[in-house]
Amino acid sequence: MDSVPDEVLLDIFNYFDGKCLKNVMLICKRWHSLITQSASTMRMLPLKYSSIIQSDEMFVHNFHSLNIQHISNVNFSKSIFEALGNTVQCIEISYCILSPRDLKVISSSFINLNFLSLTKVKLFKDPVESESDILTNEKSLILNKLILLKVDHEILDYMQSIQSQKIEIIDCHENAVNQESLINFISHQKHLTSLNIGEMNYNINVFFHQNIAEFCKFRLKKFHSLFCSNHSHVHQFEDNFISFLESQSKNLENVKISGRSLPPSIYKFVVSSLINMHTLEIDASSVPQENSFYENMARNLSIKSLIIYSTVTKHNFNGLKGLLSHYPCIEKLNLMDTDEFVANDLFHSIAYFLTNLKELVVLNFNKTFDPQTKIKHLEKFSIKIINNIEQLLKFIKIHDSTLINLSIWWITRDFESRIVKEIISLPKLTHLKIGGRFIANKRIYEVVRRDYKNLRTLHLIVNNYDEVKHLKFTFPLDKSIYTDVKCLYFEEDHDREPLND
């Protein structure tokens, strides 16, 4: 098939329906690229990659998503609404120029829309359009999720009728005309429970340039933020940020605060005052380091999950140890890396302070780490990268009486059969997930198939060049017909039928 010209392939693909095309796109990069780049000329479009086509008769009536890219004038037409308005649930628009009229159409015509994503979208105002007519919209659209990535703030002035339960706003455009639009839009949200604001290359610090707590009508359960710019010059930025968190503290369950330019007082407020949180994500370097800070506080028993997304070093270890002592009821701990100076002390502190810990996720084990300390109730363990297999085996053997779920995300060709045998021999292990090259995964499956002990689920992540497959096996298997077990599925598409192995 490599020698078949693109034109011939397109003729063949034109006889496939949208669902078949989605499967065809998974076969190789060339076919994936050919279908996505030629979508506008094909009879049947894969739903995920559907695009606006100017000839209205080419639309089908069962689209669930629209993907609109690189169009300077979208200009939604009436026939498009009639064909798609009742069925489309997801719209993704990127690198386009929209008019206020287009934005009004989205909120009023796609009545079942629950997901809207705008990426690098600019606004164009037609001088002949009446501003009052555009802003007037009797209908209110409630989305499940809204994503705004590098869009002009002013676009939000024409989205006032859109409400959303979840909103992500990342890097609003540097050439924003009216920065107050962002605050006005957010403050009018009534159904919002999850807010993610991120600042990488462009400023959206206007969000806390005034005290928005008094304007907000929503009650957040989840709040994530990332600030990369220095806000020390902004009058009352710190007070406004804390005031906002305080106003949301009653229902706030999941919090992520990141940005080394933020003042320490914000992190201290999060740790000391947000007492109803269940999940906290924080940079190890931003954790308050003073021992006296933790000694003067009552312990927080609400936190069940702690995620540390930066390297634990000897410079921030004391702060992290204080954090572990402050949250003794943690059941899940997610760590990135540790330097060689604190690896053993860190695991000793985990075992000492977190007596309820059931799940531990680590990036890798430092080469100086010597597994000796047992985490009393550890049931699930996940490691991304293996530096030393014997080190890993020693760790899991220490926890063999409690460990029921083990995930190893990347193995190499030299992952020997004896290692697999030792792992599946753990007396309580019922779930095993392993990722790596196909050859290594095939060897693992052969070993497990012959003697799977107490194992009930084997999940293999096969990484072959540009292809990632997820294979799931449920035991016991009939060993005589194991090759016919329906076990292969693609994780990114849960609706497709499983294929035979």
UniProtKB/TrEMBL annotation:
InterPro entries, sorted: F-box-like_dom_sf (IPR036047), F-box_dom (IPR001810), LRR_dom_sf (IPR032675)
Domain F-box: 1-45
Stored SUPFAM superfamilies: F-box domain, RNI-like
One Pfam family in the UniProt entry: F-box-like
CDD domains: F-box_SF
Protein name, as recorded: F-box domain-containing protein
Organism: Chironomus riparius
